[in-house]
Amino acid sequence: MRGYHKILKVFKLMPELPEVETTCRGLADVLVGRRLLNITLRRKGMRIPFPPGLTSSMVGCTVSEITRYAKYICVHLDNGYSALAHLGMSGRMVITNSQVQPGIHDHVVFDSENDVRIMFNDPRRFGLLTITKTAAIGNHKLLSHLGCDPLAYQFTPEFLSARLKNRKLSIKAALLDQKIVSGIGNIYACESLFRAGISPRRMAKSIGGNKVISLVSSIKEVLTEAIKAGGSSLRNYAQPSGELGYFSQNWQVYGREGLYCYCDKNGKRGIKVKRILQSGRSTFYCARCQK
DNA sequence: CACTCTCCCTGAAAGC
DNA sequence: TGCTTTCAGGGAGAGT
User: Fold this and answer.
1) What are the backbone dihedrals phi and psi of residue A245, each rounded to the nearest 5 degrees, phi first?
2) What is the biggest distance separating any 2 CA atoms in chain A, rounded to whole angstroms?
3) Residues of A that are catalytic
4) Alpha-carbon distances, residue A22 vs A18, A42, A120, A170, A218 (angstroms)
5) Residue A109 pLDDT > 90
6) What is the pLDDT of residues A272-289, one digit of tens each?
7) Structure confidence at residue A239 (pLDDT)
8) Would the Cβ of A229 be found within 7 angstroms of any atom in strand C?
9) Could you read off the pLDDT of A116-135 as tens digits, one per residue?
10) pLDDT above 90: percentage of residues in chain A
């Protein structure tokens, strides 16, 4: 049971790919077509320093589009620049209005037309904000090495199979490797492997044939379902409270260490979810369901 | 090159 | 009760 309650708290904080996608859509709703009137940096930086010219490159510009690149939020402007934001572990984009004053963890405040105020809130400051030329966005240091987005059509069993070939690391570690596939976090790696019935301990190179087909569909399904669940709470975005409305989800294994797996109804067979450490990260799995 | 470990940070919960 | 310690996570970069 140790660690279980802790992790339940982490759920509410941790932005993974679906939360980033949901955040992008929420921001797009209020920012696209709007001019940025003022940006206040309330500290020198977060995980990395804010670059010189960050605010001057954005103020006065109109937001043309907001897209997601793996777990990065890309705010494209009409002057050929794009802001890149990463939410890290505890970041949120709080949508509110100019009546609301920033608090201690609101590191950047963006004010746009129609009295919209976005506050980049991040207690742990693992997030970041920087800016780059839109035309060269894929060449940016932070993005250039990233592998395929798991929701892109290019992410196929053939693609993943090729990337896993000859690799001796665990399949769990492989799913978290940004150079292989970019955007699957710890929760969705665990949940996808559970759904695919694959043990997280298996070597990456041993996942082939039907297993890799099942894994790719499981990843896409789990992420898509989570985005859908998040979409239903989108209307919460613009509420004065600024709450993002992180969706709650019935995780099958993540955070369920020591609890009966759902394959063991009523706990009659005593099959419990296990937690192990892989590359310094918690992995949750069911030894009966996942081979 | 392939892979693992360390570090950054804070707040919640455990430990005393 | 209250102070101190532990620990989680994403991802860059160091270390093996």
Assistant:
1) 70, 50
2) 64
3) 15-16, 71, 281
4) 6, 25, 15, 30, 20
5) yes
6) 999 999 988 999 999 999
7) 34
8) no
9) 999 999 988 999 999 999 99
10) 64
For A168 and B1, how far is CA from C1' in angstroms?
A: 13
pTM comes to: 0.90
| pLDDT band at residue A250 using 50, 70 and 90 as cut-offs | low
Residue-averaged pLDDT of chain A: 86
Residue A282, token pair as written in the block: 């918690």
pLDDT of residue A242 exceeding 80? no
| Residue A169 Cβ < 7 Å to strand C | no
The residue whose CA lies nearest the C1' of nucleotide B6 is: A280
SS (H, E, C) A214-277: HHHHHHHHHHHHHHHHHHCCHHHCCCCCCCCCCCCCCCCCCCCCCCECCCCHHHCCCCECEEEE
User: Which residue type does A236 have?
Assistant: N
- Strand B closer than 7 A to residue A5 Cβ: yes
Residue with tokens 């990463």: A86
Strand B and A25 CB separated by under 7 Å: no
- Supply the pLDDT for residue A251: 82
User: What CA dihedral angle connects A183, A189, A192 and A198, to 10 degrees?
Assistant: 140
Q: Using one digit for the tens of pLDDT, what is the confidence trace for A12-64?
A: 557 888 888 888 988 999 999 999 999 999 999 999 999 999 999 999 999 99
Nucleotide with the nearest C1' to A185 CA: C10
Per-residue buried b or exposed e for A209-244, using 16+ beta carbons within 10 Å of the residue's own CB: eebbbbbbebbeebbeebbebbeebeebbeeeebeb
